[in-house]
Amino acid sequence: MGSLLRPVDLVNQPLGFQERYKILQKLFKQLQKAYAHTKGTNIDLERLATRLEVHVAKNSLSGQSYKFNMSILLRDVLKYKGDLSKIKINGRPLKGAKPHLSSIGNANSITTKSKAMEALKALILDSKVLEKNGYIVKEMRNKTNDDNSTQLYAPCLRCSTHFKKTDIMEKTLCRYHPLKRIYNRDTKNHQYPCCGETTDSVSFLRLGCKTFFHHVFRGESYDELCKISKFSSTDDIDGVENVLSLDCEMAFTSLGYEMIRLTIVDFFTGKTLFDHVIQPIGDIVDLNSDFSGVHEIDRTNCPTYKEALDVFLSENLINKNSILIGHGLENDLNVMRLFHNKVIDTAILYSKTKFKVSLKNLAFEVLSRKIQNGEHDSSQDAIATMDVVKVKIGISPSQNKWEK
């Protein structure tokens, strides 16, 4: 069996990794039997097994219900000879698996750009959905926040200590956990994956396993973001109709949270059109290198935000006719200071609850691709997000040639 066959990490795990891993192996063997006469490869089956297992894991409220649901799946995969549309889990059809079955021995159904554009436009999110998910939309320009306290003071994004924003460059002690806590259904408590500490621990490390000498903050309202720089609207930029996947890396500065790297990839060719480390406007507090992958910004050679904006907001890159693809794209557009209304966001498309799936897990679940094993890479993330959308509409991630 290939190295791709491993359970997807979830915020709420119904069962431990080893037990899920063993059950996943059994499911893979059942799929091999069910699809023995198809043209699908073991890699195809590994991907399908991973998607089916994580679907059951997400919809099981306990370890016991997970084991029961998986036993039903293991039985019915053979019973119905691989026809997943006939399988029910908890009395409900096995939703979420059917769109991916085209990878088992079937050719791509979309081979022209016009067909692809038609499918992509169907995924564009409504403006109300965008606003609900934290996007800054043009209508917010007339809404102001008169609460001065939210402008002068902010909670540290890491340790929650309230501090005066103008004191951000003064040294202090910030103790925090770099990774978000995860709820364990078996032990009924939260655990920090960065160090293994739990929220009910009596150790002082429960307060944080890492320290830094500055507090940091992140403005999220339109007013706060405009204090760094004004927003630009793509409605003012004429240009070619294109589809672009993008991802930003961010850092903490004296002004808040700013873009320090931007990657833009063309959907149809897979070519990288823009990839630059960018100088932030404020003074650097923390490059967040463990996550951003950026360790240094050359003030001599790296473009400023304004210089980068003049390049990426243009007729040949991001313009009013562009369809932009991203994962949690509101974060990227906010630090880019852009209003744009043609958006495909995989974090919204693939999230069924208030908890949004991470790109790392989504890439593994949909593409069987491991990303973000160490530092983040905006190029890798932009490509992964683009490929997830390709699979969503029935296109192979490797397709970059199109019929007329």
Automatic annotation (TrEMBL):
Keyword Nuclease appears in the UniProt entry: yes
Q: List the InterPro entries.
A: REX1-like_exo, REXO1/3/4-like, Ribonucl_H, RNaseH-like_sf, RNaseH_sf
Give the keywords, sorted.
Answer: Cytoplasm, Exonuclease, Hydrolase, Nuclease, Nucleus, rRNA processing
Entry's Gene Ontology molecular function annotations: exonuclease activity; nucleic acid binding
Domain Exonuclease: from-to ranges? 242-398
Subcellular location(s): the record lists:
Cytoplasm; Nucleus
Record-level GO BP terms: negative regulation of gene expression; rRNA processing
A Pfam family reported for this protein in Swiss-Prot or TrEMBL: RNase_T
Taken from the UniProt entry, a GO cellular component term is: cytoplasm
Q: Which SUPFAM superfamilies does the record match to this protein?
A: Ribonuclease H-like (SSF53098)
> Could you tell me which Gene3D superfamilies the record lists for this protein?
Ribonuclease H-like superfamily/Ribonuclease H
- The answer, when asked if rRNA processing is one of the entry's keywords, is yes
Instruction: Name the protein family.
Output: Belongs to the REXO1/REXO3 family.
Role of this protein: 3' to 5' exoribonuclease required for proper 3' end maturation of MRP RNA and of the U5L snRNA.
In Swiss-Prot or TrEMBL terms, this protein is called RNA exonuclease 3
Q: Which organism is it from?
A: Saccharomyces pastorianus (Lager yeast)
